[in-house]
Fold:
Amino acid sequence: MTHNQDTAKSAQLFTRAQACIPGGVNSPVRAFRGVGGNPVFFKSGNGAWLTDADGNRYIDYVGAWGPLILGHSHARVRAALHNQLDLGTAFGAPTELEVQLAERICQLMPSVESVRLVNSGTEATMSAIRLARGYTGREKIVKFEGCYHGHVDSMLVKAGSGALTLGAPDSLGIPAATAQQTFVVPYNDADALALLFATSGKEIAAVIIEPVAGNMNCVPPLPGYLKQVREITEKYGSLLIFDEVMTGFRVALGGAQQLYNIKPDLTTLGKVIGGGLPVGAFGGKKAIMDMLSPIGPVYQAGTLSGNPLAVTAGMVVLDEISKPGFFDALTQTTATLLQGLQSLADQYAIEFTTTQVGGMFGCYFNKSPAISTFAQVMQSDVERFKRYFHLMLDQGIYLAPSAFEAGFVSSAHGANEIKLTLEAAEKCFATLKQ
Ligand code: KE4
Structure:
C-alpha cells in the first residue's frame, strides 16, 4: 500500500482546533493522547475507507467507535437521509419514524418491552440508572473496573475508555457523595460480586455491565459469568442493566443478550441504532419503563430525542443487518483478520493476543494467551502498542488511538482490505522485532 506521509493540513487544523476547543477535540480519546502524536483530521469516508484532510487514505477499524457497522456513506443510508432532509429535520413532536424504530428495537430485543429514545449512550445510561433507582427506591449502583458507561457522574469511577487512557480513572468534579453511591468490582469475578451483595445487596438498585467489555480493549465474559451476575441481582431484587451501547446489534442481531441468552431488566443502546447519527436508547420491562414521565414519577426528557434524521439512518442500518447471513459474514471477516494478525505475530515471535465477539475485537501486546480481567489488560505493553499504532497509521491503517479500546469491522471490509491490513501488519511486526 502506498501512503502519502504528508499530514500538514491535519497539523494546521489541530493547531486551530486547540485555540478554541479543549485539547482540540470534542471527545478526549480522539486526541491521540494514548498513542502520542497529533490526531488525524478526516474529510470523508466511503465503505471501509477514510480520507484525511491531506488526501491520505486509510482502512478504518474504528468506524466512529462502533456505529458504522455498514461502513461509511452506505448508499441506502444516504438515500434515506436525503429523502428525509426534504421532509424536515426536527419537529419536537412525535413522528411515525420513531415509533418504527422503537417497534424494531422491541422486536429484535424481546427483553425490551418498551423503549425511550435519547441522543447518546451517556444519556441512555444516565437515564437507566435514574430509572433503576426510582423503581427500586434504592440508591447504590454497581459497575465494573475498566467498564465505561459514558461520562455520567456516577459512572466516572475507575472508568474505561478515555478516562482509562488518560490515566485518570476518577474524574475531578464528581462529588464524593455521588462517587460513594457507586460500588466498583472486578469484571469476570462473580465471587467478588456475590461478596459485595452479601453485605450490601439490599441497598443496591442496579448492576450496570458491559456484557462484552469494550472499553478496556475487548474483554469477553467468561463462560457462565453473565448468568451468575443475573442470578445474584435477582436474588437481592436489584435490577440488571446491560449496557449494550457498543454490543447492541454489533455482536449479534439481538445483541449480547441474545448471544449469551440473558434477559436483563433494562438495556441501554446507542451507536449502531443511529447509523452514525446521534441516537441512544434505554428500554426493558414495561413495568419499569412505565415509571418514566409523563406517566410515571421518574423524569427524563430531550429536545432532539427520536430525531427524524437520526432515526431514519438507524432504521436503514437495522434493516440491513437483519438480512440473512449478515452477522456470519461480519464475524468471519473479523476472524480472518485476527487469525492473520496472530499468525504474523507468532511468525515474528511477538507477544500478541486477540479477542473477538462478532464484529468487535481486541488486540493486545500481552503474553497471556487469554485476556479476561482488567488486571491482565493492564499488563499489556502499551509502548509497543503505540509503535504498532503509528507504524500501521503510516501505512494507511486506522486503528483506535488507544490500547484500551475495541476495534470494529464493517460489512464494507472485504478480502482486499484484510489483505492490505495484513501486509501492513507484517511490515509492522518485522519492524517491532528489530
Ligand atoms: P456516548 O455518550 O459516547 O454516545 O456513549 C457512551 C458509552 C456508553 N456505554 C458504552 C459501553 C460505550 O462504549 C460508550 C461510548 N464508547 C466510547 C468508545 N469506547 C465512545 C468514544 C468516545 O468517548 O469518544
Remarks:
- The first helix runs from residue 8 to 20.
- Residues 274 and 314 are 4 Å apart (CA to CA).
- The mean pLDDT is 95.
- Residues 27, 29, 65, 120-122, 125, 148-150, 161-162, 210, 214-215, 243, 245-246, 270, 280, 405 surround KE4 (CB under 6 Å).
